[in-house]
Amino acid sequence: MGQTGGHWGKIGMASTELEEEQQIESPATNEIVLEPKLGPEWALAPIHLGVVAVFGVLFMTFNYMPLRATDLWGHVAYGQWILEHRALPTADPVLPLAEGMRVVDSAWLSQVIFAAAEQAGGPEALSTLFALVSIASLAVMTRVFWLQSHRIGVMLLGLLGILIVGLSRLGTIRPENFGVLCFALLLWVFASEQNRARANATNSDDDRGDAKSRGTWLPWIAVPVLMAVWANLHGSFVCGLALLFCMFAGALIDSLWHTRDFVRSLADKAVRRRLYLLELGVAATLLNPYGLDLLLYTLWFANNENLKDVLEWRPLTILGVGGREFALSWVVLLVVLRHSRQRVRAADVLLLGLFTLAAITGVRMMSWYAMSFVYVIVPHLTDLWNRFVPARWREWEVPLELDEAPQEQFGMRRGRTFNYTLIGLLLVWIVFALSPIGRPVVGDEPRQPQLLYDNDTPHELTAYLRENPTPAGLTFCPQWWGDWLVWDGPEGLRPFMTTNLHLAPRQVWRDYQAVSAGVSGWTNALDRYNTKAMIVDKDKQATLARSARRSSAWEIVHEDEMALVLVRREPTVATASESAADAAEPTEPSDDAAADPAAAESSN
Amino acid sequence: MLTNRLFLMVHAVLLCVVVAAGAYRAQALTATRALPTLRDEPLTVEPTYDYNVVITDEQLDRVLTKLRPRFESEKTKINHVDHALRFWTLGADFGDDPAYFSGYGMRRLLLNHGEFAKVYGEDEPPLLLDDRPGVSVRTQQGNRTSSHVDHTMACLAEVGTPLDHPVVLPTRETTFRELVEQSLREFSINQIEYEWSALTYALFLPPERSWTTTEGQQMTFDLVAQRIMRERLPRGVCFGNHRLHTLVMFLRIDDQISILEPATREEIMEFLANATQLLVQHQHPEGFWNDGWPLQTPESPTPTEREGDRIAERILATGHALEWWSLAPEELHPPRHVLAAAGQWLVRTIDELSEQETLDYYTYLTHAGRALSLWRSRNPAQVVTAEILAAAAEQTATPAAVESPAAQSDASLAPSANNPPSER
Predict the structure, then answer these.
(1) Number of residue pairs across A and B with CB atoms under 8 Å?
(2) Residue B190 and residue A100: Cβ atoms within 8 Å?
(3) In this prediction, does ipTM exceed 0.95?
(4) Lower CB density within 10 Å: C or N end of chain A?
(5) How far is CA A8 from the centre of its chain?
(6) How far apart (Å, rounded) are the C-alpha atoms in residues B49 and A151?
């Protein structure tokens, strides 16, 4: 090993071996000569340390991200219900007004994982799970970019691209995270395949044979397994099917372009391979508790009328959530394509076109768009990188191998050494120790609730409610707090609305919006549901809060910085008569209600 | 090439199989939201009591004569017509007197746009709306429209209109089925007024017990009953009395064909028993109630100016209470003297109403008149015979003192087979 590994090269060596080796060391020099047990690929270069540092920072960021009082808690509650009942719910277990509405629980496996994590390690475990899944997704995508470019600089640019374009979805903690990971894994399968194809094209015949034998079987196992698991994790598995279809259709179009003969195109091995993968993928998604119904339900899901009132299901606007990132991505794409000499593949056009359309029609599709966009652009970026980035800059991303003569640059050894591997491990340990995930190991106190949950989580409210439960019956609450109230509030609390608003009958949702916006007749609408108590978000439901304070029908029993709690006063003849007379007057949500900024959360 | 063609064929077949399976499942899932099978003829609920303590024969003749459905030409209000049809039924026939509607005449006005246009003119927006694939009734848009959601439809169902009964729209001819089916399509369990819709479904759906709404909610009569019981009393139109009436109808229909789970039935019984208790508790000594019937006893024996306590609302509250009790199982009845006091208060009040007041309060009075008839198990159309009409005409010509309300009340309280002394 010589100088390169130095005395740090002992990684992986057992202590007894070390002792034996020490005994045969030369007594004259007393210098320990270590032999590496790890392969040379484990020796890192400074650029690799940079990558480790980037991922360390990202992991810490994800792990420190506070848990939000949104649908996460509804999913955990569903998961707990499933674990308790050993069955899937057929009706929403927490939303009483959704009785009779069919539940197709497309995220049951994610919910079980959430619930199991929560049972094992409390809310902190959910944060860790989120961080691990998110970092895994980014790591896989980074690997994809590496396979596409073999340039660390491009790879990191790709990572940056995903973070920027998908910025609006980064803090989302919900089953969608598992879907994102599955999408990344599927892209990895195709990137590996393309990488092999490139290698086959450039290598000698012998090398080609090796390459073929190494991984051609992988997609046949990976795709069906991945799609089967994904179909049970989250409804976004249709994005996976879309990807498989784009890959097949792209291969077919490319083949048609060359052959100009449809039947002959079908003889193309790549076309057939992609078609078989698509078919396998579709078949695998049927392995779920609902069978084919899940696919149909998922396709219909986006047509739910209630969801159209929710921000993340609304079409993208340039100045709205995700809009700027989307616009920027297209500017970058046009510039890159203008200068790229790389061939544009049909599959890429289809993929980008499909997910651009999806993102335009619904803000929540930005995660998938971001990954597709960067996946498509990276080969072109690589071309530009190779042509326009000065060679001396690019030297840094091609580390010297272990057996090459070391070079110093900026006071650092440029090549690979196991010293850097150890520094990398140290970085990993530092990240671990400083992150919430490491607190139990390093003996640190768990995070305080103020740090664990985000500022919009109404702790004080649920603490009050646990001590002073609202009267039995329905409790009106902001839908974005509904899941949290069920989770952290008193047992038996019956929320008027939760983030499962797609399960609420249309009329219920409209009434909810009307009340939430504090439109005239809101108290009458609440009486129609025999609502016994009301929780108001003072910030996001300011009109309702003002109106509720003035109402003689409701009495404020609690007020804190974020919320008001009111209970219905016993009716008098005057109020009863008034409400009976009002009963025929409909309450319609105003534009304000429809534009309810807080109605930005929905389950799934 | 052959292999390619074979490959193509196999995959084309595969694609067809997948698409067919998807289409089949999609169709099956959509079918769950299809309209339920309806009975061709609505169920009927017959009265079962004959309590003369509530109203005597003579009083009933007089009251019914006064409450005949007047034809006011273009001033006729549609809510008078549908209320009157429900009260008088299809059998109403007052000879050739053009001042009054016949039962069939009322139904024609409601279901035939040609008749409607004859009365109100061609320029009047039609009562029946062509909402393809269904028909709906213009509601709460003035005197020439229906006053409650699905009330007109429920009235037609209560009088036995079959689904194949012709309906004439300005644009086409169809049947009553389209009206009921359109209501089912538009129904939401949480809509503001649902009582008449629910009643119609209970008359047309059994033995079907459940269906799926357009909102995707699986509906059962149990769920509908829960909805009806959900709100506090006296919330709802007519001080919550339509809710009580529909619940009673559910119980009576459940006696014929099971539509309720036993637990729901028990809950309804409890709910109605509680309503009865509140009514007994808050009845004014004179026998009437007002808008606050579940909360307190009216303070003044004479009507006040407060909305909810005027004479019209007292008639409304008292007439409706007597109406739902008249069809309710006997265990839900109040003590007999409560019924008698209420019945006699209604008779006295109706006797004292002027012709204009009778017209003004007519919709409320139809409930009162119907209740009084039901307590005697009489069909109003059969009570008001030609002889009675002739006698009434004579009385109008030579006004005679009507029997004093007090005397009538005493007479009606006389012991009878249906009125054991212990319950008085």
Answers:
(1) 113
(2) no
(3) no
(4) N
(5) 38
(6) 93
